[in-house]
Amino acid sequence: xxxxxxxxxxxxxxxxxxxxxxxxxxxxxxxxxxxxxxxxxxxxxxxxxxxxxxxxxxxxxxxxxxxxxxxxxxxxxxxxxxxxxxxxxxxxxxxxxxxxxxxxxxxxxxxxxxxxxxxxxxxxxxxxxxxxxxxxxxxxxxxxxxxxxxxxxxxxxxxx
Length: 160
Known about the structure:
Order of helices and strands: EHEHEEHHHHH
Number of strands: 4
Number of helices: 7
Distance between the termini: 50 Å
Radius of gyration: 17 Å
Largest sheet: 4 strands, mixed
């Protein structure tokens, strides 16, 4: 079964998250075609490294990314340093998935400050693994004051 996905108009990292979810459903030899308004620059290399056949073409004002699963395909590597679950210190460079693993109660704080996609378990598995708190701040357009408040609440978890 071949799949189609339209990610036009979506803000990053939403297209990447949707692509990763769809790839998980592909069987060897099957293809996912993704239509987007940006050229998928960040994804192509990661997909090829993970053993997928990737073809990108421009059609009018859109980009079509054709991804075929091969026998050698594995889950694309997202920059995640999941060395251990121990988190030495919560900083703006802290990976969101690592934070959630070390302090499950941090989910309530993150959602309160606008990280609502994390309420979805699939997003916690995909999106959270690929993003730091600082990147999430930028993504959400969060003010420095609000970010500082959130960081203080998260740091309070370390002391608990």
